[in-house]
From TrEMBL:
GO terms for biological process: protein O-linked glycosylation. Signal peptide: none annotated. GO terms for molecular function: alpha-1,3-mannosyltransferase activity. It comes from the Eukaryota. One of its GO terms (cellular component) is membrane. This is Nucleotide-diphospho-sugar transferase domain-containing protein. The keyword Membrane applies. The lineage of its organism: Eukaryota, Sar, Stramenopiles, Oomycota, Saprolegniomycetes.
Length: 467
C-alpha cells in the first residue's frame, strides 16, 4: 500500500512547480496586455482620427445612395463655416424640409472633424469635393484650384451636381419658410428659374465699371454682351428687352442679382449651364463684371437666350454702416428677400442674410473658434425650443423665431416696411414696374423720389449665452 501511495504522490509534487510556472506566465502575459492597453489609450486620439478619416467616413458614405434623387439643396462650405452650415441643416429640417442637402467644398477644404459633424447632424446629407472631381476629369487645372475656394465655387457646384432641380443657399441664410415652397412659384414653373434682386449700388464698378474693349470705352455689362464667344455655343448676339431695361444696363447700379438663394431646373436649360461653366472658368478671368458669382447665373441664361424669372419684389432689409456699434441690441440683417409671389397676401419674408446673427463680433475668425460640441448642442437646443438659428458667437448670442415675420422686438410690415427700427434702412415690398414703388426706388409722401439702398429690418434681441 505504501509503495502505491508513494507512486501516486509523486505526480502531485511534480505538478505543483508546473502550476506555479503557468500562473507566473499568465500573470506576466496579463501585465503585458494591460500595459499595451494603457499605451494604446494614450495614443487613442491618433487612433480615433485614423479610424474616423479612413474607415468611419468611408463606411458612412458607402451606405449612402442618393443617385436616384433629382431635387435638392446645395450649400458651399469650408471648415470655418461648419457652425453656420450645421445650424442651417437643422433649421431646414425644423422648417419641414426633407430634401437632400449637398455640402460642396473644394480640394480638401473640409477636415475629417467637419465630415463627422455634418454626418452626425443629418443622415440625408451628402458631402462633395467638386474641385477634386473637376481636376480628375481634366476640366480644371491644379493651378486654378485655389481660385475656387471662395464664392466662385457655387457655379461649379451647380454644373457638377447630378441633381436636376437645385436650390443654392448660402450658409448664412436665415430662413423664415421652407425653401421647397419655391418649387411651386409660378415663375419657376414657367421658366425653371427664380432669381432675386441685389441692392442697387450706384458706383462705377463691376457691371457698371468702364474700360477699353475693342478700342472702345464701354461699360462692363455692355462689353460682356459685345465680346462673348457666342459662336462657341452656336449662338448670336441678341440682348433681350429685359436686359436692356435693367438698372445695370442703364448705368444705375453695379449689381443686379443677389445669389444667396438661386433656384434652377438644369434640365430645362442645358445650354445655359454650359454657358455658366464657360463664364466661371474663362470669362471671369478676362472681364471683371461680377462681384463673385452673383451675376453669373442670370447672365448665363441671358447669353444663352433662355427665358429666366426674377422675383417680382426688390430686396429689403439692410443695416446702416456701423449699425452694430450704435445699436448692439438689434440686428437689421445684411440683405433680405420677400417670397417671390406677386399676389400673395400678406406678403411674407423668405430669408435674411444675417451673418452677424451668428458672429456679430467684428473678428473674421470668430465662427471658426466655436467648438463643434457647442455648435451641435446649440443647434439641437434651438430645434427643441422651436427656434431657428442659435449658433452663438463668443460673447454675443442672438436668436430668431422660425416661421415668424420677425423677432420678439420688431416686425416687418410688407406694405409699410419696418415699424420699429429707425436705424435700419427701411423699405416695404416694392415692384420693378412702379405700381406701388418702382424697382429699388420709391416716391415719398411729399412726392420726392429717392433711391433705396435696401430696407426693412429683421432685428434679433440678445437673449442667451453659453454657460
Amino acid at each position: 500500500m505504501s509503495r502505491h501511495g508513494t507512486e501516486r504522490s509523486l505526480p502531485r509534487s511534480r505538478a505543483m512547480p508546473l502550476m506555479m510556472m503557468c500562473i507566473v506566465c499568465l500573470f506576466v502575459v496579463y501585465i503585458y496586455v494591460l500595459n499595451s492597453s494603457i499605451a494604446a489609450m494614450k495614443d487613442g486620439s491618433d487612433v480615433y482620427r485614423t479610424i474616423s478619416q479612413d474607415q468611419w467616413i468611408y463606411q458612412v458614405e458607402r451606405y449612402k445612395d442618393f443617385s436616384s434623387i433629382r431635387r435638392g439643396i446645395i450649400v458651399c462650405v469650408f471648415d470655418a463655416m461648419i457652425p453656420m452650415a450645421a445650424s442651417l441643416v437643422l433649421e431646414l429640417r425644423a422648417l419641414g424640409n426633407t430634401e437632400l442637402i449637398q455640402m460642396y467644398h473644394c480640394n480638401g477644404e473640409l477636415s475629417a472633424a467637419s465630415y463627422r459633424i455634418l454626418y452626425m447632424i443629418d443622415a440625408h446629407l451628402e458631402i462633395v469635393d467638386v474641385c477634386k472631381d473637376f481636376v480628375a476629369s481634366g476640366r480644371l487645372s491644379t493651378s486654378k484650384v485655389s481660385d475656387f475656394r471662395s464664392f466662385w465655387l457655387k457655379p461649379l457646384a451647380l454644373v457638377h451636381t447630378r441633381l436636376v432641380e437645385v436650390i443654392l443657399l448660402d450658409a448664412d441664410d436665415l430662413l423664415f419658410h421652407d425653401p421647397s415652397q419655391l418649387w411651386q412659384v409660378p415663375g419657376y414653373k414657367k421658366t425653371g428659374t427664380i432669381f432675386f434682386f441685389d441692392r442697387e449700388v450706384a458706383k462705377a464698378e463691376y457691371l457698371n465699371s468702364r474700360s477699353i474693349h475693342r478700342f472702345q470705352r464701354m461699360q462692363n455689362l455692355h462689353a460682356l454682351i459685345e465680346t462673348f464667344d457666342y459662336a462657341r455655343f452656336g449662338l448670336v448676339k441678341q440682348p433681350s428687352e429685359y436686359l436692356q431695361s435693367t438698372l445695370a444696363w442703364n448705368g444705375h447700379s453695379a449689381h443686379e442679382q443677389d445669389s444667396s438663394i438661386v433656384v434652377i431646373n438644369k434640365a430645362i436649360a442645358p445650354l445655359a449651364i454650359d454657358v455658366l461653366l464657360h463664364l466661371v472658368l474663362v470669362t471671369r478671368y478676362q472681364l471683371e463684371f461680377s462681384y463673385g458669382d452673383k451675376e453669373l447665373f442670370w447672365l448665363a441664361f441671358e447669353l444663352a437666350h433662355v427665358p429666366y424669372s426674377f422675383s417680382p419684389w426688390a430686396n429689403t432689409a439692410a443695416a446702416m454702416p456701423g449699425d452694430m456699434a450704435q445699436h448692439p441690441d438689434t440686428i437689421c440683417g445684411g440683405l433680405a428677400q420677400w417670397m417671390p409671389l406677386a399676389d400673395a397676401k400678406p406678403r411674407r419674408p423668405l430669408d435674411a442674410r444675417c451673418r452677424r446673427a451668428y458672429t456679430p463680433t467684428p473678428r473674421r475668425d470668430s465662427v471658426a473658434r466655436i467648438a463643434p460640441a457647442q455648435t451641435i448642442q446649440a443647434a439641437n437646443d434651438s430645434r427643441r425650443q422651436g427656434q431657428s438659428r442659435r449658433i452663438l458667437a463668443p460673447g454675443m448670442p442672438v436668436q430668431t423665431r422660425i416661421g415668424s415675420h420677425a423677432t420678439a422686438r420688431c416686425s416687418i410690415d410688407p406694405e409699410e416696411g419696418s415699424q420699429c427700427c429707425s436705424h435700419c434702412l427701411v423699405a416695404p415690398a416694392r415692384t420693378r414696374s412702379g405700381q406701388k414703388i418702382g424697382h429699388r426706388s420709391t416716391t415719398t409722401t411729399t412726392g420726392q423720389r429717392r433711391q433705396w439702398r435696401s430696407g426693412g429690418c429683421v432685428p434679433a434681441p440678445i437673449s442667451a449665452r453659453f454657460p
